[in-house]
Each structure stands twice: as structure tokens, then as C-alpha cells.
Design brief:
Elements (H helix, E strand, L loop, with lengths): L17 E10 L6 E11 L4 E5 L6 H8 L7 E6 L2 E2 L5 H11 E5 L10 H6 L9 H14 L15 H13 L5 E5 L7 H16 L3 E5 L11 E6 L2 E7 L7 H12 L3 H13 L9 E2 L14
Parallel strand pairs: 3-8, 3-9, 6-7, 7-8
Antiparallel strand pairs: 1-2, 1-4, 4-5, 9-10, 10-11
Helix pairs in contact: 4-5, 5-6
Bound molecules: adenosine-5'-diphosphate and magnesium ion (MG).
């Protein structure tokens, strides 16, 4: 159903597609300084499906925005396809983003006055394509997510699940090889969430690299690597078999159940019920927990 991008079936272990070296992001000045990312280093290979977890404020979105070239690191090196991109000028950075990366956000971010088709065609507007070709490409992308019959609807006429499928179409329309999804199921009921996850899983199976932030333990079963963030650092980095929920993630969910965040618990519980019980017996720890100095944000 989906287009196969020019990609390899074998993971390249020599040249990572994404390489982040001691990247920090500091917001504010003086007493109001927040260290959103604290010397994070990570290598990501082509074709990985990474679930990024961690409490609110731990730096997940900041990391995604830096990888997605929506934001710049304060310090450190970011290489995308072996090219140093952190300090590229605005125009070159935008071009690199457009050619390599598709975004999916929790709140969909579709423009309310444009039709679904026009929204999906938007990322092509900067490619110098004729409008007819842009709309054709958008129509094909909508077909990939099963939304052809909604092309001329406005976003407010769609359900949450349909909106997220439209935003997946928008993310795919450029043929990017990296998909960044920041809590893509955060605003969805469990049935819609499952559809969205199956689509992301299809995109992954075609050889694309997927980075997905999630609070939801059960959606980590689609991933083959889990990052866990805390206070601006990656504290766990685990390989995991697709189809399984790592024990640590399950434990985090159990801990959440004991907390008092009712809304989050309700969302996650609904999701867990919609999924079959995992066979959680593979648990490969990739890197040891790093003891880090206190880097709690000063707010
Ligand atoms: P998460 O996505 O894990 O919830 P974020 O990456 O959004 O975390 O935020 C990490 C930290 O950086 C938080 O303390 C947050 O308040 C702070 N932060 C994020 N964006 C900004 C910003 N634009 N200005 C100031 N502080 C920010
Ligand atoms: Mg976030």
C-alpha cells in the first residue's frame, strides 16, 4: 500500500543516519535557566523504530525538535546523514528538514481553513512543483492512509483518528526517510490509536526510521529500541523485540497506576485493555544507567 522509499533492508551499522554528540539545550538566562537537554549523545541507524519515554519535562520534545531541525542545540554536534546540520543557515536547514523529515504531532497541527487535501500538499509548496502535481501527490498520500473520501473536508469535519491519519499523510508526502512523531496517540481513543500505530508500523517496515515519543507502554511494542529520558538525559537505552513490551516499561506503567495523574492513567488504561497481553520475556539492556550529577532544571 505504501511507497517503498529507496532504502536498504539491512541495517547499516557503520554510518548512523542520526548522530548526536554531547548536545545540550539551555533555555533562559541566569536564575531562569532551564537545562532541557544535558549533553545527550546518541546514534540512530537507518530503519530503527525508537520509542522515547520519560516524564513530562524530561526533554523528549526538545530532543525531537533538535533532531527534526525545528530547534538548534546550544552546544554539541548533530550529524544527519553524516552532515553537520546543527549550524546550517536557516534556508539550508529548512531544505534538509523538508527532504529528510516528516512530523506528526499530538495536536495534529492542520490548518483549519484549508481542506484536508491542501493541508497534506502544504509541505510540497516549497518544492517548486505545480499545484496540480502537488495535489496529486497529496491525494496519493491520503490514499495510503485510507482517507481519500475526506480530501475536500475541512479539518473540523474529521474525527481525531482521521485528523491524525491526515497528518501522517502530510508527514509522508515529501517521501522523508525519518518520521518524528511526538505523542501521536496522546489525543486519541484506543481504536484510533491502534490504526495510527499500524500505519506508523507500515512506514517502519518499508525501511524508514521512526522516532516516537509516547507515554503509552503498549505502543512501545511497535518499537525495536526504547529510550528513557529523565531531567534532560537519556538514562536507559534498550534494544527490544518488536511485539514486546519491555519489563521496565511495564513497571513504569504500574508505577503510574499508583500515582494520582487520573487523566493519564485513564488514557493509558484504556489503551492497555485494547491490546493483547504481551509476552514480556526478552529484555536486553543496551547501556548501563549513567550516574549523572544533579541537573534538575532551575525554574
Ligand atoms: P517533554 O517533552 O519531555 O515534556 P520538553 O522537551 O518539552 O519536555 O521540555 C524540557 C524542559 O525544557 C522543561 O523543563 C520545559 O519547561 C523546558 N522548555 C521547553 N521548551 C522551552 C522554551 N521554549 N522555553 C523555556 N523552557 C522550555
Ligand atoms: Mg513533550
Amino acid at each position: 500500500m505504501l511507497v517503498k522509499w529507496p532504502s536498504t533492508d539491512v541495517k547499516c551499522s557503520v554510518m548512523p543516519i542520526i548522530e548526536i554528540d554531547e548536545v545540550s539545550k539551555v533555555y533562559g538566562f541566569g536564575d531562569a535557566t532551564t537545562v532541557a537537554l544535558d549533553e545527550v549523545s546518541i546514534k540512530i541507524e537507518k530503519g530503527e523504530f525508537i520509542a522515547v519515554m520519560g516524564p513530562s519535562g524530561s526533554g523528549k520534545t526538545t530532543l525531537m525538535n533538535i533532531i527534526g531541525l525545528l530547534d538548534r542545540p546550544t552546544h554539541g554536534i548533530y550529524k544527519l546523514n553524516s552532515k553537520d546540520v546543527a549550524r546550517l543557515g536557516k534556508v539550508k536547514q529548512a531544505r534538509s528538514r523538508r527532504d529528510n523529515i516528516g512530523f506528526i504531532f499530538q495536536s495534529f497541527n492542520l490548518l483549519p481553513r484549508l481542506t484536508v487535501l491542501e493541508n497534506v500538499a502544504l509541505p510540497l509548496a516549497y518544492k517548486g512543483m505545480s499545484q496540480t502535481r502537488r495535489l496529486k501527490a497529496a491525494s496519493r498520500a491520503l490514499e495510503q492512509v485510507g482517507l481519500n473520501d475526506r480530501e475536500y473536508y475541512l479539518p473540523n469535519q474529521l474525527s481525531g483518528g482521521q485528523l491524525q491519519r491526515a497528518s501522517i499523510a502530510r508527514a509522508l508526502v515529501n517521501g522523508p526517510s525519518i518520521i518524528i512523531a511526538d505523542e501521536p496517540t496522546g489525543n486519541l481513543d484506543s481504536t484510533s490509536a491502534r490504526v495510527v500505530m499500524e500505519l506508523l508500523s507500515d512506514v517502519h517496515k518499508l525501511g524508514n526510521t521512526v522516532l516516537m515519543v509516547t507515554h503509552n507502554p503498549s505502543v512501545t511494542r511497535y518499537a525495536d529500541r526504547i529510550l528513557y529520558m529523565l531531567d534532560g538525559s537519556i538514562v536507559y537505552d534498550e534494544a527490544t523485540a518488536v511485539g514486546e513490551i519491555p519489563r521496565r516499561v511495564q513497571n513504569a506503567f504500574n508505577a503510574l497506576r499508583k500515582s494520582d495523574d487520573d487523566e493519564k492513567i485513564a488514557n493509558v488504561s484504556a489503551m492497555m485493555e485494547a491490546m493483547p497481553t504481551p509476552t514480556d520475556n526478552v529484555y536486553t539492556k543496551k547501556s548501563k544507567k549513567k550516574k549523572r550529577q544533579s541537573k534538575r532544571s532551575r525554574k
